[in-house]
Amino acid sequence: MSKKQPPTQPAQDSRLILTVSARTNDVRLGDSLAKYVLSGKEPIVTAMGAFAVNQMVKGLAIARGRLLQNDVSIQWYSSLHDGVGRKDGKHVTVVRTKIVVMNKENLEVV
């Protein structure tokens, strides 16, 4: 009988990819994003569809407010990508947003 091998740990990566849907709770998303940023990660958030993009933007704004309370400033950069719809398989546009933590010297509230 062979011994069980311990599970391998994933490589420590500062990237984290979150997918947002129209049903995503924006407050929970914002809190999660803030938590991940405070732990040293720079999340990438993806959304497909108008309602999902709306939830993503609200979540980003909530995260920014939560982080400013901890003297952490973030910016985000969005890009468009082609994707395939889950239900019908049609080509759709996906918004991918990368969160970047700013240095204290660059801290500016807009």
Q: Can you characterise this structure?
A:
With 110 residues, the chain is an alpha+beta fold. α1 (26-38) packs across α2 (50-68). β3 (73-84) and β4 form a beta hairpin. It is built from two helices and four strands; from the N terminus they run βαβαββ. The chain has a single domain, classed as 2-Layer Sandwich (Translation Initiation Factor IF3), CATH 3.30.110.20. Strands 1-2-4-3 form a four-stranded mixed beta sheet, covered by helices on one side. The longest helix has 19 residues, at 50-68.
Kindly summarize this structure in a few lines.
29% of the residues lie in helices and 34% in strands. The chain is α+β, with helices and mostly antiparallel strands and 110 residues long.
Task: Summarize the topology.
Layout: E1 15-20, H1 26-38, E2 42-48, H2 50-68, E3 73-84, E4 91-102
Parallel strand pairs: 1-2
Antiparallel strand pairs: 2-4, 3-4
Give the fraction of residues assigned to helices.
Answer: 25-40%
Helix and strand sequence: EHEHEE
Widest sheet: strand ordering: 1-2-4-3
Determine the number of helices (DSSP H or I, runs of at least 4 residues). Answer: 2
What's the alpha carbon Rg, rounded to whole Å?
A: 17 Å
CATH topology description: Translation Initiation Factor IF3
* Mean pLDDT metric: 83
Structurally, how many domains make up the residues?
1
Write down how many β-strands occur, each being a DSSP E stretch of 2 or more residues. 4
